[in-house]
Amino acid sequence: xxxxxxxxxxxxxxxxxxxxxxxxxxxxxxxxxxxxxxxxxxxxxxxxxxxxxxxxxxxxxxxxxxxxxxxxxxxxxxxxxxxxxxxxxxxxxxxxxxxxxxxxxxxxxxxxxxxxxxxxxxxxxxxxxxxxxxxxxxxxxxxxxxxxxxxxxxxxxxxxxxxxxxxxxxxxx
Amino acid sequence: xxxxxxxxxxxxxxxxxxxxxxxxxxxxxxxxxxxxxxxxxxxxxxxxxxxxxxxxxxxxxxxxxxxxxxxxxxxxxxxxxxxxxxxxxxxxxxxxxxxxxxxxxxxxxxxxxxxxxxxxxxxxxxxxxxxxxxxxxxxxxxxxxxxxxxxxxxxxxxxxxxxxxxxxxxxxxxxxxxxxxxxxxxxxxxxxxxxxxxxxxxxx
Lengths: 173, 204
Fold this sequence. Notes:
The complex is a heterodimer of chains A (173) and B (204). Chain A is mainly α. Chain A has helices at residues 12-30, 37-51, 53-57, 60-63, 76-94, 110-131, 135-144, 148-165, 169-172. Chain A has two domains: 12-99, no CATH class; 103-173, no CATH class. Chain A is built from nine helices and no strands. The radius of gyration of chain A is 19 Å and the shape is globular. Chain B has a two-stranded antiparallel ribbon with strand order 1-2. Chain B has eight helices and two strands. Chain B has one domain. At the A-B interface, helix 1, helix 2, helix 5, helix 6 and helix 7 of A face helix 1, helix 2, helix 3, strand 1 and helix 4 of B.
């Protein structure tokens, strides 16, 4: 490792082609697309059930993940997301892009960035439950299968992204 | 071969989970290659400087869409064994909007935050804690969100059904829309010299 400079990112069409083929493969193998917010929810319900099982039982919304003695972690999306962590690392380490950093623009402190990351993450977690999926589960997967609601979701997602841009310019630009 | 394999009993649960892990590696690999482990790169889309989010996402949707509907029309992929996202139009529009806001505020989405985490971004740790907190709030509020989250239920509805055309027409329209948006994006990227690369990256 004499060269420590990070490699540039790929051409977006090449990365998009790769991602599209992985998405297609997911449908061919498992009969479902890609997703990630569902895995976060399953992990969270599994942890909650360890701490306070009675609370899970009292909520039909959360209890359905444990129906008939099921383990919420024994699931396609959970193992998919474990793979995402590994795949991201493999790509990053072979391109010199694994570094302990805070990703932000020059005009905001680390503390400010962490605060917005937490707030944005909270909105994302809430919204992904409401919409029954996130950028991968709805926009990518529902987009490819031409599901009507997923296309409405995709346009709303881009609209929301642009709406917040002006107010967040000090964080990024 | 009859696709999809797993729902038609082609292999065991354990094999299925192993397959999920392998598919996930591919997913994470291409997300990172696209630069989606970087919040600066992702959010530059919404300042019209770097169109990678739109280009990668739409290329993937079109490629997978053509493959998916191609296999269906050849009779090689059985829709009755395939999960299709159900349409609940109002929560999907409001949820999508809120997700977009959260994306620009927080810098990632759930999938990209995993890739950011595995490439060392400390802000991604806070983002992921936020996701878990947001899921917790929704799950606790679910009894009062329930009626809205089921508003506009249309079941398994495809864009082409809704428009009364064939899947091919919708895919062709998506391809044309993508080409138009990509060309416009490339013009803006060049004007602003806006494409984000890793800090200190080697130049090709």
